[in-house]
Description:
Chain A is mainly alpha-helical and 226 residues long. Helix content of chain A is 62%, strand content 3%. Chain A folds into 3 domains: 3-55; 77-89 and 170-226, no CATH class; 91-168, no CATH class.
Amino acid sequence: MRIGELSRRTGVPVPTIKYYVREGLLPPGELSSPNQAQYDDAHERRLRLIRALLDVGGLKVAAIAEVLGAVDDPGRPLHKVLGAAADRLGSAGGAEDDAEAETARTAVEELIARRGWRTHESNPAAADLSRALAAMGRVGHGAFTELLDEYADAAELVARADLGYVSRRATVEDLVESVVIGTVLGEAVFSALRRLAHVNASARLYGADGVGREGRGGGVGARGEG
Amino acid sequence: MRIGELSRRTGVPVPTIKYYVREGLLPPGELSSPNQAQYDDAHERRLRLIRALLDVGGLKVAAIAEVLGAVDDPGRPLHKVLGAAADRLGSAGGAEDDAEAETARTAVEELIARRGWRTHESNPAAADLSRALAAMGRVGHGAFTELLDEYADAAELVARADLGYVSRRATVEDLVESVVIGTVLGEAVFSALRRLAHVNASARLYGADGVGREGRGGGVGARGEG
Lengths: 226, 226
């Protein structure tokens, strides 16, 4: 198909498609004449993936280029592709060295040992976890670490579901793309579900929707609803 | 304390502190002389909260202003504060109206009904969930909706843990701040845990770290480790 048809099918404007080609996100079309290129279903699929990572995953163009580069490189081990996809969470910060950082790192090491997780404290996700916990400690919420095992139970549930989904994919290309989509878009899915579950849990705990702060606890045990 | 001392204690440069005051994130200090202001522990605590929301939560200054405005407004119902904190996930997009959007909306409605969640399809998080699922559908991963109940189980676990934590806080001020911190920073915690659990699950499923794509499945059942 021509670029105009690709644009119509995907809803992506022609100049934007050309920009993605220039940035290396999308392979160029095949030249059928000096100034006309042909695109196929693979282009359409890739374009939809780019839009999903941009619009729902919140990735920047540079991050998408990196992730797609990993997807397209058959020699790249699977866990490296996963790492590239996860990097969009961008732990910008260097390690800090106050008491909270030390406490958080210890809590993470103990968690990994306690769960028997086959991972290492040097994993970037472990550093991100320490950073988040240390930040909570600095605002007086060090007690949040008490929730770590409940959070870890939930993370294991999600990871098992994801891996089960990925392992059902037929081809390796499918598998890698599934890992990327699962990591980036699956996070958006879980984030939305967590907020919905919060609304539900707080409606049950604090009563119906619209209760002000002074109504805290007033709705507990309310009957005749549901 | 003077602004220099506040800067030393928190590691935030003086011009940055002044910028936060101008933007309304931080209340001004109390003037002890025409060109000298005094800051107290509440300023220090607020400043640490701002940094945590910025650095770990990834919120922009405008989003923080909105969230802190909600925290500081005692008439604002708790669930509105929660909504302001959750808004940083910024569903930029308008609703789309293709077949995938329709399928996703139906899946979300059915999920909410099936789980008996006391929430409504009009909740912004429900719209975000639909958007993420529709995006997956458009890249050929509509089957991801099969994982929704496993994801929802995990989200309920996390929400119960969060609410349990929040309900243990003594004062209302604490409670509201806990909700904000839990929503924003708790998401960073869960995201990191999910990635760690992925590494663990794939190490168990596909063998040791560093296995290439061609080694997929080769490590399943490997013994003598762990």
